[in-house]
Amino acid sequence: MSLSLPYALAVWRRNAAMYKRTWKWNILPNFFEPVFYLFSIGVGVGAYISQMAGTSYLAFIAPGLVCVAAMNGASFEVTYNIYVRLVFEKTYDAMLTTPIEPDDILAGELLWAATRSCIYGGCFFVVLMLFGLTPLPSSLWVLLLIPLTGFLFATIGMVFSLRIPNIDMFSFYFTLFLTPLFLFSDVFFPLKERLTGGWLWLAEALPLLHPVRLARASFRGEFSVTVLWDLAYIFGISFILLLWARRGVRHRLTN
Amino acid sequence: MVVGTRELSKKFGERVAVDQVDLEIPSGVCFGVLGPNGAGKTTTLRMIYGVTQPTSGTIHVFGMDITKNLRAVRSRLGVTLQQNVLIEALSPKENLQVFGRYHLLREPELSRRAEQLIDFLELRSHADVPVRQLSGGFQRRLSIALSLINAPELLILDEPTTGLDPAVRLALWSRVRELREAGTTVLITTHYMDEAQRLCDQVAIIAAGKVIASGAPAELIVSRLAPETVEFDFTPNEEALLFDGFEPKRRLRIGRRLMLYVDDAAHLIERIRGHDKGDRRPVIVRPTNLEDVFLSLTGTSLEGNP
User: Fold this and answer.
1) CB A148 within 8 A of CB A213
2) pLDDT for res B300
């Protein structure tokens, strides 16, 4: 174990320094995107749906979309951006000429991805607040859920990025992994009402399902024992993937 | 001894990249590792600063085993990689600050070092311009500045002047000399023999992962060849006639080109003129350089083809 927090933060600050330069332009889409979703799906499609699980359709999809924003924020960072730094810009080769070690790089990058997820998810939450869709105070739990979701998807993306042979593989990651997750993880309809038997169990494997369930529980202020399972999933999978990513980073950087 | 390697080897699968390399780099010298592309220079460097694990052998830097004291060793050295690793959206000043934090430098020391290096590498005129707008020479100078941010005792330069124009190369060489005079030990890899000859106190020539010669450049030239080189086009038949009863210290043929290494060129030129019967073919007389040493050792040109 050779993680040192000050060095990990130096890695984090490299990305923060770049983001600071462009944040005014970068952050704008983070506000527009939720507005478009809310109007198109929530208001537009929602007009044909009188009620969804006891609420308006708009209120039904709102919590899940916060998780989607957190997922996307982290995913962009650990896919294209990581790959460019790793393969083209050789950022990590330069870091490894300093006292920084591979574990610090991994920690710094995952923390940064989680930070980006907080920016995305946080912006989305603010927009929801302006729409009056965030019941207070219970929905504030989501602010803790956003970084956890970000970290989960940061580890997933990191493992993928360290193993692919070329940058074109990311289109698979987005269209065959993230897009289906977005569409089938309880965000737009309750999955369990459309699935039966073994499929229901299989659906529990979907990583976005758990944050979405937690977010919805938080918005409704209805916490059941499922919360523990969802949290256990998020922490457990993040941890396993973290160990896997650690091996991958060492392998890629130190040979 | 700042760097000492013992029977250092690295295999990538079946391929032997570095083969039983012994290097001893004393404090305060400029040491050159010379060799063609793919000779194992970069792999050797990567093992010295601890990024690549040796397959066998030992490495001590500042008297410490690199594999056990990675952070301690790296905090005292600086490395300029072959490829410039810069944040293009940020200015040279900001790049220096980001890189300084990798060494946990804090303000006001961080800014003080950055300002010093901006002056030292003559980056002042563009200190606040995004790096992507800078010329190749500027970017290279900034890369070297980054590797000096922690005031290293050992500076490692991996092919520092490849692709630079002559003026920039000269400027960089003089900076390297200044650093060395101030006590920094410099380890440089290059496939430019003129660069090595001008900068280095000692060199190790490596080919196919092995050290094939080492020593001070001038000593290598004298011991392996001779101080003067006479170079001209001559067929093998003519060559046989010319050397009937005369043997220069060493000769080397690459295609039609013949290179003769001698202590005194005048005598040889007389002989050649006697043979070419008024033909007055062009003959070049020049000081023998490291490139000749390399050619004589490997029989191949540095750039691949003779």
Assistant:
1) no
2) 55
Integer CA distances (angstroms), A184 to A36, A68, A128, A178, B302, in order: 20, 11, 22, 10, 60
- Say which of A18, A99, A255 has its CB closest to residue B90: A18
Can you give the pLDDT at residue B278? 65
Place of tokens 């977005």: A182
What is the spatial distance between Cα B175 and Cα B186, in angstroms, rounded to a whole number?
A: 11
Residues on chain A touching B150 (C-beta within 8 angstroms): 98
Measured between beta carbons, which residues in chain A are less than 8 angstroms from residue B52? 254-255
Q: Tell whether the model's pLDDT for residue A17 goes beyond 90.
A: yes
Contact criterion met (CB below 8 Å) for B80 and B157: yes
For all residues of chain A together, what is the average pLDDT?
93
Above 60 in pLDDT, residue B99?
yes
Predicted TM-score (pTM) of the model is 0.91
For residue B120, give the 3-state DSSP assignment: helix
Please name the member of A90, A91, A99 whose beta carbon is closest to the beta carbon of B75.
A99
**Looking up tokens 């001590």, which residue turns up?**
B60
Question: Under a CB-based contact definition with an 8 Å cutoff, are residues A143 and A109 in contact?
Answer: no
Task: List Cα–Cα distances, A42 to A24, A57, A79, A127, B195, in angstroms.
Answer: 27, 6, 29, 13, 68
Dihedral pair phi/psi, residue A130, rounded to 5°: -65, -30
CB contact under 8 A, B90 and A255: no
Pair of tokens at residue B78:
């600086």
The CA distance from B274 to the nearest CA of chain A, in Å, is: 59
**B52 and A254 in contact by Cβ < 8 A?**
yes
Closest CB to B101 among A10, A18, A90 = A10
**Shortest Cα–Cα distance, B216 to chain A (Å):** 28
Is B296's pLDDT higher than 90? Answer: no
Contact flag A14-B101 (C-beta cutoff 8 Å)? yes
Question: Tens digits of per-residue pLDDT, A18-37?
Answer: 999 888 887 887 778 878 98
Strand, coil or helix: A85: helix
Q: For residue B290, give the nearest of B209, B231, B211, B222 by alpha carbon.
A: B222
Nearest to B181 by CA among B12, B306, B30, B2: B30
Contact A18 B150 (CB under 8 A): no
Write out chain A residues lying below 8 Å of B99, CB-based.
Answer: 94, 98
**Quick one: closest CA in A to B130, which residue?**
A21
How do residues B238-247 score in pLDDT, each as one tens digit?
777 777 766 7
Residue B94: which of A7, A17, A253 has the nearest Cβ?
A: A17
Q: What is the DSSP letter of B301?
A: -
Chain B: closest CA distance from residue A99 (Å):
4
A124-151: string of b/e by CB count within 10 Å (b at 16+)? Answer: bbebbeebebbeeeebebbeebbbbbbb
Which DSSP string do the residues of A142-201 spell out, in sequence order?
HHHHHHHHHHHHHHHHHHHHHH-SSGGGHHHIIIIIIHHHHHHSSSSS-GGGT--HHHHH
